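Quick review question:
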């Protein structure tokens, strides 16, 4: 599996919250908080598929994350219900995530 790809197909290496956490980049964290109108104290992420570390509040309650973790999947591409209704909105907003998971699923089948 791809190292930085999480359950929903997001490439964390392209996420400013993850990059700021990984690189301890307070300037990037501040810029991201301002751009996304979020509390800077919430912008720490060690990737949602890890056991340790912090996650932004919106990732902590993510139904995709909770579902995949419950089923012990690395990504949703492993699920027999893929793609399910939980992925509709993210795929509409971020079509690259669908492309990523489709490619992973193709390798698995």
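Suggested answer, residue by residue:
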């Amino acid at each position: 599996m791809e190292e930085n790809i999480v359950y929903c197909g997001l490439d964390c290496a392209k996420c400013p919250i993850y990059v700021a956490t990984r690189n301890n980049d307070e300037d990037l964290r501040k810029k991201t908080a301002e751009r996304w109108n979020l509390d800077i104290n919430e912008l720490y992420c060690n990737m949602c598929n890890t056991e340790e570390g912090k996650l932004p509040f919106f990732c902590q309650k993510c139904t995709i994350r909770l579902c995949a973790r419950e089923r012990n999947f690395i990504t949703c591409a492993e699920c027999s219900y893929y793609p399910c209704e939980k992925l509709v909105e993210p795929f509409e907003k971020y079509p690259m995530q669908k492309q990523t998971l489709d490619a992973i699923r193709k390798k698995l089948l």
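Why it works: The chain has one domain: 12-108. Residues 95-108 form the longest helix (14 residues).
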